[in-house]
UniProtKB/TrEMBL annotation:
The keyword Transmembrane helix applies. The chain crosses the membrane at residues 12-30, 50-68, 75-93. The keyword Transmembrane helix applies. Residues 108-302 form the Endonuclease/exonuclease/phosphatase domain. One of its GO terms (molecular function) is catalytic activity. SUPFAM superfamilies: DNase I-like. This is Endonuclease/exonuclease/phosphatase domain-containing protein. Gene3D superfamilies: Endonuclease/exonuclease/phosphatase (3.60.10.10). Keywords: Membrane, Transmembrane, Transmembrane helix. InterPro entries: Endo/exonu/phosph_ase_sf, Endo/exonuclease/phosphatase.
C-alpha cells in the first residue's frame, strides 16, 4: 500500500518565512536598542520618541503570518510581542488609583501663550492645589493671579513659567538649566505635612534639526535633582521629551514618573488630531503617585496633567 509523501515547501515560501522571522527580530531589536541608533539628521530623536508606536507593526506582521502560516512564523512573531509587552506593557495598563490621607494635588500644562487664564481657572476648579503653567503669554501673569487670588494666593513666576499655590511658597529660585536665560524654577511648597521641593520646567524645543539646548537643560535638571537633599521632590512641566528619549534618561534615573491611571500611554501632545507624544511629565522623589489624570483644559495644543501625590509615603 502506498503512502502520500509530505507536501514539500516551495523555495519561495521558505525564503519568505525566513525573511519574515528576520523582520520580526528587526522590529524587536529596534524597540530594545532604539537609544543606540546614531542620531544622524535627527534619526535618533525620532526613533526614541516614537519607540512605543513601533508596536503598531505587530498587527501588520500578524496578518503576514496568517498568509505565510507555519510554526516558525508565529514563533518569530512572539519575539516583538514579548519585547513590546516588557518595555511598554506596564505603562499601557491603568495603575490603581487611591486616596491617600495626606495628599497634594499638582497640575501642569503648557498653555501655548493664550490659554493661561482659562487653564488656571479650570485646573483650580478641578481641585489642584499647586498649578504650574508653561509658555504663559505676555500680560497674562496679572490676569492669572487675579483669577486665582482667592484659591491660590501664592505665586512665583520666571519668564514664561509660573507656579500658583494654595500653600505658601518659599526659597524661590530661577533656573536657566544651561539655556542662558531662565526657563525653569524651583520653590518649596509649605504644605500641612512638610515642605515639598517643586521644580517647574519648560525645556527647550526638540526638533530633528536641533535639540542641543533641550538636551543640556535635561542634563542640568538631573544634576540639580541629584545634588538636592530635599526629602520630597516634585518636578513638573513640559520636558519636550518622552520617557523613551535617550536624553530624558538622566532625569528618569533621578526621579520616578507618576503613573498614569487610565488605559494607554499618557500622550499629551498634540491635542489635534490626536496625541502622539507624552512630553509633559510629573516626576517624583521621596513621595508616591496615587493618581495621574490627563485633562483637556483650555484651548492649548497640550493636554494638562493632574497628579495626586501621597505625601505620607
Amino acid at each position: 500500500m502506498s503512502h502520500a509523501s509530505p507536501q514539500r515547501l516551495s523555495a519561495s515560501l521558505i525564503i519568505a518565512r525566513i525573511f519574515f522571522v528576520l523582520l520580526c527580530l528587526a522590529l524587536a531589536g529596534l524597540m530594545v536598542f532604539h537609544q543606540q541608533i546614531p542620531d544622524v539628521l535627527g534619526l535618533g530623536l525620532v526613533v526614541d520618541n516614537l519607540a512605543p508606536w513601533a508596536g503598531l507593526g505587530i498587527p501588520a506582521l500578524f496578518l503576514i503570518a496568517l498568509v505565510l502560516r507555519g510554526r516558525s512564523s508565529f514563533i518569530g512573531l512572539l519575539v516583538p510581542v514579548v519585547v513590546w509587552a516588557v518595555l511598554f506593557g506596564s505603562s499601557f495598563i491603568p495603575h490603581t488609583q487611591r486616596a491617600p490621607e495626606t495628599a497634594l494635588e499638582v497640575a501642569t500644562q503648557n498653555v501655548h501663550e493664550s490659554a493661561g487664564v482659562q487653564a488656571a481657572r479650570e485646573l483650580a476648579d478641578s481641585g489642584a492645589q499647586v498649578i504650574t503653567l508653561q509658555e504663559i503669554g505676555e500680560g497674562q501673569e496679572d490676569q492669572i493671579s487675579a483669577e486665582l487670588a482667592k484659591s491660590h494666593p501664592y505665586k512665583y513666576m520666571v519668564s514664561t513659567v509660573g507656579v500658583w499655590s494654595a500653600y505658601p511658597l518659599k526659597n524661590a529660585q530661577p533656573l536657566d538649566l544651561g539655556l542662558g536665560w531662565n526657563r525653569a524654577l524651583r520653590v518649596d511648597v509649605s504644605t500641612d505635612h512638610g515642605d515639598v521641593r517643586l521644580y517647574a520646567v519648560h525645556a527647550a524645543s526638540a526638533r530633528p534639526t536641533g535639540h542641543d539646548e533641550r538636551d543640556a537643560m535635561l542634563a542640568s535638571l538631573a544634576n540639580y535633582v541629584q545634588s538636592d537633599d530635599s526629602a520630597k521632590i516634585v518636578a513638573a512641566g513640559d520636558f519636550n521629551a518622552t520617557s523613551t528619549d535617550r536624553h530624558f534618561a538622566p532625569v528618569a534615573q533621578a526621579l520616578d514618573e507618576a503613573q498614569y491611571s487610565e488605559w494607554g500611554l499618557a500622550m499629551t501632545w498634540p491635542r489635534s488630531p490626536f496625541p502622539v507624544l507624552g512630553i509633559d511629565h510629573v516626576m517624583l522623589r521621596g513621595v508616591e503617585s496615587a493618581n495621574l489624570q490627563r485633562a483637556e483644559i483650555g484651548d492649548s495644543d497640550h493636554y494638562a496633567l493632574q497628579a495626586t501625590i501621597d505625601l505620607g509615603s
